[in-house]
Amino acid sequence: MNQTEAFHRRIDAALHNDQLRRNFRSALTGIMARRAEQFPDDAQLQALRDQARAVRANALVRQPELLERLERQLTANGIQVHWAEGPDEANAIIHEILARADATSVVKGKSMVSEETGLNHYLEQRGIDVIESDLGEYIIQLAEEPPSHIVAPAIHKNRREVAELFHRFHPEIPYTDDIDQLTQTARAILRDRFATADAGISGVNFAVAETGTLCLVENEGNGRLSTTAPRVHIAITGVEKVIEKLSDVPPLLEILTKSATGQPITTYFNMISKPRQPGELDGPEAVHLVLLDNGRSRIRVDAELLDTLRCIRCGACINHCPVYVQLGGHAYGTVYPGPIGIALEPQRIGIDKVGTLTSACTLCGACGEVCPVRIPLPTLINRLRAEAVDGLRAGATVRGHGSLRKPREARLWGLWAALYGDPTRYRLFIWLASRLRWLTPPWLGAWTRYRSAPRPAARTLRELARDEGFRDE
């Protein structure tokens, strides 16, 4: 089954799941409303967006320099830095760290980069017990599903579905679909794991080069426990998360939390700069940072596609996407769904593998309008559509460039360009089309699967205008 067929099957399954669509509509409507409440003054919002964009753009332009500075500062602080080109290398590094520490159990905070590498599966295959400590991640871990959203991984499930899942895996706990009681149940289950885990793994929201500080944004406290209770803490993040100065954090944090969940601020903001120091009573004995490239350097060399890497993973573009709300994240079949996934995944994985994703966009522009760092997502998606079928452009930077090009379709578009590019040929074509309209085929590919084939009018617009007394200029 090719990528197009697989994508269409996932779409069909999502569109026929009425409960799934109700879940998404209910959740996303609330998130969008809360976000709007946080930005009552549009002028202030636009100014904050400009500031956040400038911070991220500066960091990307100076990324090699800032990454070197980050490594020096982290090393001076006592944090060990590891570099990984791809997922396999990142997973192997983490496994080696755990093996050296004789760690067999891991408590893990939410990390989309670890989803890129398939870290949980990799470690479990090697006898290491991994439990997700974020409530949403814990839910989908029980369900053996990937995240459906980059901020709210279990957004596709309602409280009754979660209650049934908890009861199935923890039958000793009385069944309830009360959200507060479900949360308390998860907290009771996870509390012991924080205390007994050999190591903790987390993501990173921002890595500050100036001070060698790893910033972690969260609401549940699980991130703080995952990074302080176990004796070893391993953080993993993409190389694009580096920023220059500590003073760059406040505007990013403000617009991240408001854009992601409609909160003025998250409950917890963790700043990790060192392992436990002599005389301190808590904190990990060792801290490691794994910096993953995984195609990011290749994206960065393209002056236009570089904008993709400004993303701060707030999920606002996903929340406002009319396609995502109908399909949910699993239909995309990639780690990152929604508009940011459509822009990032074909670059990261290759157009030849997931280029069909670019068709899951109406180009309505909603994602670009809400992006807190002003990523021009519709422009990038349109560029990738062109990359998918353009077999002529030299110096292409996107992996799998031109792999979705269809010779017959290309010839038809070439014919269209020849007809519409010359006035004489165009006039002759529409005259013939109106006279031979009865030859219009009833089937015009996927367009006519749900629509009637358009048929040319009996007379051309030029002829009708001439009858009304209008003359050609």
Descriptive key words:
473 residues; alpha/beta; Rossmann fold; 10 strands; 10% strand
Multimeric organization? single chain
Measure the end-to-end span. Answer: 54 Å
CATH class wording of the domain at 39-294: Alpha Beta
- Count up the helices: 22
* Content-based structural category: alpha/beta
CATH topology grouping of the domain at 39-294:
Rossmann fold
CATH superfamily of the domain at 39-294: NagB/RpiA/CoA transferase-like
Compute the number of strand runs.
10
CATH architecture of the domain at 39-294: 3-Layer(aba) Sandwich
Percentage beta strand: 5-15%
Q: Give the biggest sheet.
A: 6 strands, parallel
Can you walk me through this structure?
- With 473 residues, this protein is α/β, with parallel strands linked by helices.
- Among the domains are: 39-294, NagB/RpiA/CoA transferase-like (Rossmann fold); 423-467, no CATH class.
- Helix content is 49%, strand content 10%.
- The chain has 22 helices and ten strands.
- It has a six-stranded parallel beta sheet with strand order 1-10-7-4-2-3, sandwiched between helices.
- Strand 5 and strand 6 form a beta hairpin.
- Helix 2 (18-38) packs across helix 12 (249-261) and helix 16 (338-348) crosses helix 19 (377-389).
- The termini are far apart.
